[in-house]
Amino acid sequence: MQIWVDADACPNVIKEILFRAADRVAIPLTLVANKPLRIPSSPHIRTLQVPAGSDVADNKIVSEMSPGDLVITADIPLAADVLQKGGFALDPRGVQYTRDNIEESLTMRKFMDELRSGGIDTGGPPPLSQSDRQAFANQLDRILTRHYHTGSKAGPRALQQTT
């Protein structure tokens, strides 16, 4: 398993949780963005800079990921592509996208896009709260624990709380 991050829009506090998790379980973490990013010095963490443009980072993640990889993204179409390729997708607010909930998420996104294109101000998502951060850390821990307990190459160290 490898963790991929749609990093242009990923909150810094979520990146920090991911940095700690990658080092703790010795799992590769790649942040994909169209601008340079600061990352801690670690053999497990790297960045991949892509050209600016619509869906360039998303397309790179999908082309590079393998089945079983985890992708951190709030981009619902990217999450759908990840699931289609056999990966796992986790929202920075702690919602794990699944085959059971992705269609509903895509439908809601399309509906909100139609409202916005009709001139209706739908506002944006609320700021990331402490409970969102905790939900993300807990869900990440569950995913990594499942992966670790199924005989993965995640490393010999036991998992600890990610917050």
Structure characterization notes:
This protein is 42% helix and 13% strand. The chain has helices at residues 12-25, 56-64, 76-84, 102-117, 130-149; strands at 3-6, 29-33, 45-49, 70-72, 88-90, 96-97. Strands 3-2-1-4-5-6 form a six-stranded mixed sheet, with helices on both faces. By secondary structure, the protein is an alpha/beta fold.
Helix content: 40-55%
Count of DSSP E strands? 6
What is the number of helices?
A: 5
Q: Ranges with pLDDT <50 over ≥5 residues? A: 152-163
Question: Outline of this structure?
Answer:
With 163 residues, the protein is of the alpha/beta class.
Topology of this protein?
Blueprint lengths: L2 E4 L5 H14 L3 E5 L11 E5 L6 H9 L5 E3 L3 H9 L3 E3 L5 E2 L4 H16 L12 H20 L14
Parallel strand pairs: 1-2, 1-4, 2-3, 4-5
Antiparallel strand pairs: 5-6
Summary keywords:
42% helix; 163 residues; alpha/beta
